[in-house]
Amino acid sequence: MNMHARNIPVQKSAAEEFLDQLFDAGILFDTGVDGLYGRSGTFENVIKAFDNLVTKFGGDDNATPIHFPPGIARRLFEKSGYMKSFPQLAGTVHSFMGGESDHCTLLAELEAGSDWTSQQAATEVVLTPAACYPLYPTVAKRGPLPAGGRLYDLQSYCFRHEPSKDPARMQMFRMREFVRIGSPEQVRAFRESWLERGQEMMASLGVPLTVDVANDPFFGRAGKMMANNQRDTGLKFELLIPVTSEEKPTACLSFNYHQNHFGSLWDIRTSDGEEAHTACVGFGMERVALALFKHHGPDIDAWPKAVRDILWG
Ligand code: AMP
Ligand code: ZN
After folding, report:
1. Measured in angstroms, how far is the CA atom of residue 223 from the centroid of ligand 1?
2. Which atom of ligand 1 is nearest to the CA of 173?
3. If 0-12 CB within 10 Å is exposed, 13-18 middle and 19+ buried, where does residue 156 land?
4. Over the stretch 84-122, which tens digit does the pLDDT of each residue have?
5. Ligand 2 centre from 281 Cα, in Å?
6. Does any ligand 1 atom lie closer than 6 A to the CB of residue 130?
7. Residues near 302 by Cβ (< 8 Å), separated by ≥ 6?
8. Nearest to residue 277, comparing CAs of 187, 150, 190?
9. I want to staple 263 with a disulfide (CB 3.0 to 4.6 A). Which of 78, 120, 205, 276 is the partner?
10. Does the CB atom of residue 173 touch ligand 1 within 6 A?
11. Residue 54: C-alpha distances to residues 20, 58, 91 (Å)
């Protein structure tokens, strides 16, 4: 062991420094796992106020609200193709299903500090990776869409296995989503209107923002091609706000056009019998709150009056 190593000051990243500030201010609470944090009442007040603001901007569209729990049926998850694209992010729920002698083994393993998880078996539940995943099979079950298509308003805690010291990259976080299902024209018009609205809404909160074409973190070599294709065809846009880095701003809202991907996978049909197209706009609730704390400071009473009025007026 290098005895001098302890004298070298550890250079913390800007992200880690911001995380420390959030802990020190009592806005987030450390749980011992990167990306898994307790939230203060103040943090939750900001999330609630932002949630209401989203409703104000999108409320007239009369979306159907559905709140799914943060778990999706494993059978549906398997069919969704998530493991083809993002196996590195998925989280499955496992549980002890043994008998008494297995229980003795489990306790002995725990006692010895050895790996006790070999006793765990997969349940029927997988953690939801994005709020819209449980929606498509639910809509498919209702039969063909009405002529105007459908619009849903979802919110769910989501899980992604991407542990990080960046407070904006959590493992468990909330996503609100509007999901439009219908003809290509209906779905594209929805995404266009939210690209405008999203910018107007976030600009009203006094944060610097840009919108850029983006791609999902598809796994592996084949994934690189999928990511390039997604960018080239403009299927994903993100609204970015600098949170921990000016050079690499954080995606706080996403605007995704899936074309007929989910319509074909789940056999969702329009009133004309065509495969439905889908698009979703996702709001990263924690990321927006963190962007507001970053730009307006830890004390919400000291935030600019115009911003407070928008959120709590
Ligand atoms: P995505 O499906 O990756 O476009 O995610 C939808 C939205 O969820 C993004 O625009 C982010 O605001 C938010 N989000 C994605 N990943 C994370 C994460 N690891 N931690 C916090 N928020 C996230
Ligand atoms: Zn979605």
Report:
1. 19
2. 21
3. buried
4. 999 999 999 999 999 999 999 999 999 999 999 988 999
5. 7
6. yes
7. 296
8. 187
9. 276
10. yes
11. 29, 6, 28
Give, for 227, the enclosing helix (H) or strand (E): helix 220-232
Look at residue 2 and tell me whether its pLDDT is greater than 60: no
Q: Whose CA is nearest to atom 1 of ligand 1?
A: 254
Q: Report DSSP state, residue 270.
A: -
pLDDT band with cut points at 50, 70 and 90 for residue 10? confident
Radius of gyration of the chain (CA): 22
Given this structure, which CATH class describes domain 13-71+129-312?
alpha beta
Find the ligand nearest to 152 CA. 2
255 neighbors 281 (Cβ within 8 angstroms): yes
In whole angstroms, what is the distance from residue 214 CA to residue 251 CA?
Answer: 9
Cα(148)–Cα(141) distance, integer angstroms = 18
Query: Is 157 in contact with 174 (CB distance < 8 Å)?
Result: yes
The pLDDT score that the predictor gives to residue 206 is 98
How far apart (Å, rounded) are the C-alpha atoms in residues 201 and 311? 11
Q: What is the mean pLDDT of the chain?
A: 96
Asked if residues 123 and 94 have their Cβ atoms less than 8 Å apart, the reply is yes
Q: 295, 272, 281, 292: which is closest to 48 by C-alpha?
A: 292
How many Å lie between the centroid of ligand 1 and the Cα of residue 163? 13
Ligand 1 pocket, residue 170 CB under 6 Å: yes
How far is it, in rounded angstroms, from Cα 178 to Cα 131?
9
Cβ atoms 253, 280 nearer than 8 A: no
Which tens digit of pLDDT belongs to each residue from 216-255?
999 999 999 999 999 999 999 999 999 999 999 999 999 9
